[in-house]
Amino acid sequence: MTPNYFDLTIHEAHDLLKARKISAVELMQICRNRIEDVERDVRAVITVTEETALVQAKEADRRIARGDMTPLTGVPALIKDNMCTKGVRTTCSSKMLENFVPPYNATVIEKLNAAGMVLIGKTNMDEFAMGSSTENSALFTTHNPWDLTRVPGGSSGGSAAGVTASEAVYALGSDTGGSIRQPAGFCNVTGLKPTYGRVSRYGLVAFASSLDQIGPLTKDALDAALVMNVISGHDACDSTSAPEPVPDYTRGLTGDLHGMKLGIPKEYYVEGMEAGVESVMQAAIKKLEELGATVGWGVSLPHTRYSLPVYYIIAPSEASANLARYDGSKYGYSYKDTDNMWEAMEKTRQFGFGAEVKRRIMLGTYALSAGYYDAYYLKAQKVRTLIRREFDAAFEKYDALVTPTSPTVPFKIGEKADNPLQMYLSDVCTLPINIAGVPAISIPAGFSEGLPVGMQIIGKPFSEPALFKISHAFQQATDWHKQRPPLKPD
Amino acid sequence: MKLSREEVLHIATIYRLGLSEADIEKARDQLSNILENFEVLKEVDTTNVPPTAQSITLSNVMQDDVPRPSLPSEDVLANAPVREEDFFKLRPVLESGGV
After folding, report:
1. Which one of A239, A324, A330, B55 is most buried, by most CB atoms within 10 A?
2. pLDDT tens digit string along A340-377?
3. Are B44 and A366 inside 8 Å of each other by CB?
4. Do β-strands A261-265 and A294-299 pair in parallel, antiparallel, or remain unpaired?
5. Which of chain A's residues have a Cβ under 8 Å away from the Cβ of B31?
């Protein structure tokens, strides 16, 4: 049987490229054709970078020919459209940046380029990464390849949908409160939110600077480890970048979990969780036990319930500060029809920002304003400390914590669009992780009603190797991550 | 407690965020609803708990002041809404009615 080349993982593609069974140019064209075949339904990609991809693929073939290849050389990738790509439009799915062409590359792009990436496109997202469904994109809505009437999750919905639909071999997303993990769960791919500071944020359009992290969306844990090997590490251009050494993340993927202690925090298994998600989780946890892990059910993180208000005070506050730069003077949309500076600034924002972005700017401005700062922002920062301490205490006993990524399967497009609070609740399992700054991965755990269910594995700071070890062992013993949506090419 | 029209306009003004009439009414409902949900934080005892501004332990990251090449001004100005020679051209500040 001929393999579906567009279904390849990074490590499979690498083996074929290395053995010269396929060229980087051929692989790029396979992805390009796949994009053409499925994009009318999925709509994951804002900008297809065919011309530069061809140049990069040819260069990759030259590198392969002279034996100078890395595991990512010649492998086509999608990048979320909030990471700056020199000379390639970077919209943030916003009218504000619809025609913005960055004059420089984000650090992650520089690193991937050095490794031989073939950038095939920039992906759709919720505007400025604010949202959980990709419906907040000012450009168009992405559809979940598993059921086109449902959302792919968000905000990295285009990256997750693009990978599960095999429009590229892997993608980068960014995660401020679940924006890699929730769409990874909804689309049946593997998605990692690294430890805060592990991956440079230089060139990532800022949303909430104390919470944002860039991470991979891939077809399995080994692929995620391969991408992390390239994008991790200290960067002088990001003062919050951690000076920790970068291990080889592909080491220690033994498939054996003996000696690992996993905790099941009860607060993540209540209120609003669908029965189908719960039974998938029960089976997945049993599988982890079979692989040798010890499972502790008595874990309690009582401050989990405060994560939602803490997040929705801190993230909008930071966003309101970060987005103040969009005033129409240096780049981006600029309202022209007035000579008054203030009016120009107000109208630039009125017409440049969408509803959710304005909502969060107002929330943040309110929380930071005179008379409310102590009651909202400072209070949230103090509760943030308590949430962090609770994770610290749990990690004294456990190597990792296991929860569902989302309490539900992907919801219908439009279902929560008019109810911001309901939308915010869909991130209830992922928000605490960004608040604490710890790493977490979402991996395919099974299906409910024919729709993917993600399992979230949370670790202590810089324990990405343990998360990969657990994920890899689970994926050696199951084939949920190998399931692909039944898309019919046009 | 529903936010008043004045409160919404105050937030918009201090941020310099333009809002339509529909935006204002929607903000009154939705922001009030969200803010109500924040009330639950009042029940948490945070006496003697220090605030967390960010989750890593780094502080005052310094580096040597070594000159390095900047982006060419043509590249920097390429996205400018209005430019004049090598400058971003802005509207007059003082004539706009001050702050």
Report:
1. B55
2. 999 999 999 999 999 999 999 999 999 999 899 999 99
3. no
4. parallel
5. 359, 362-363, 366
Active site includes A80?
yes
- pLDDT at residue A3 above 60? no
pLDDT at residue A231, as a whole number: 98
Residues of A in contact with B82 (CB under 8 A): 334
Residue found under tokens 């070594």: B66
Asked if A101 lies within 8 A of B79 by C-beta distance, the reply is yes
- Give me the residue label for tokens 């967390």: B52
The rounded distance, in Å, linking the Cα atoms of A32 and A36 is 6
- Quick: pLDDT tens for A152-179: 999 999 999 999 999 999 999 999 999 9
Say whether B41 sits in a helix, a strand or coil.
helix
Share the mean pLDDT of chain A.
96
Are the C-beta atoms of A160 and A186 separated by less than 8 Å? yes
At residue A68, the 3 state secondary structure works out as coil
Q: From the list A100, A359, A380, which residue is nearest B41 (CB)?
A: A380
Question: Across the interface, do A362 and B20 touch by the CB < 8 Å criterion?
Answer: no
Considering only the beta carbons, identify the residue of B49, B56, B80 that sits closest to A240: B56
Say if residues A100 and A90 touch (Cβ distance below 8 Å): yes
How far apart are alpha carbons A129 and A178 in whole angstroms?
A: 10
Q: What confidence tens digit (pLDDT) does each residue in A207-218 have? A: 999 999 999 999
Kindly compute the dihedral angle of the four CA atoms of residues B48, B54, B58, B64, in this order, to the nearest 10 degrees. Answer: -130
- SS3 call for A292: coil
